[in-house]
């Protein structure tokens, strides 16, 4: 009976992950509870990640398959971190969440059953006002086909310079970087001219490969709720159905 109840709880927690948009009304701490209660303890005791796909205790993150879509995964800190507005993510010793999320993109290709090039894979985090969960999480998934084409011209832009872009009717800015760590950490890149908790709370960030391989660098794509025609969520730039894998 105990095992049945435990399996039922695990299933319920896994289901509640499905579609971040539906979580807020039910339990805004669901992701934290899943990682903290159903992933970290089994990793600590047995070396297995429980309901998560992976748990890296040393680097302080877990990877969880989202029930929405066939290829979407989430990187979730094993520390309590509320979201993009948290000062913790800008501390000198903060984990490289973007680097770790990018290294986890292979899970998407495995689910898609095809090796996807880097410019067809993306990472995304929502603003404080367009998320449903009070635990930082980075979405990892395929990129919308039209967005791949729209961002292609930016692959040859000089490093470290913002360029304007209009994507799906919203105003964004795009910067090409050589890596995703240290001063090129997307959180730090955006925070340089959007400082402070209140300003960062408005931001959304999307990251994808500038080209097919990492030698081309990465594109950091940023918008915000508090700019004209801006957006607090870049998640629509991702394709949770991964059409690109089905149609080449």
Automatic annotation (TrEMBL):
It is a single-pass membrane protein. This is CDP-diacylglycerol pyrophosphatase. GO terms for biological process: CDP-diacylglycerol catabolic process; phospholipid biosynthetic process. Keywords: Cell membrane, Hydrolase, Lipid biosynthesis, Lipid metabolism, Membrane, Phospholipid biosynthesis, Phospholipid metabolism, Signal, Transmembrane, Transmembrane helix. It comes from Paraburkholderia rhizosphaerae. It is found in: Cell membrane. InterPro entries: CDP-diacylglyc_Pase, HIT-like_sf. Pfam families: CDH (PF02611). GO terms for molecular function: CDP-diacylglycerol diphosphatase activity.
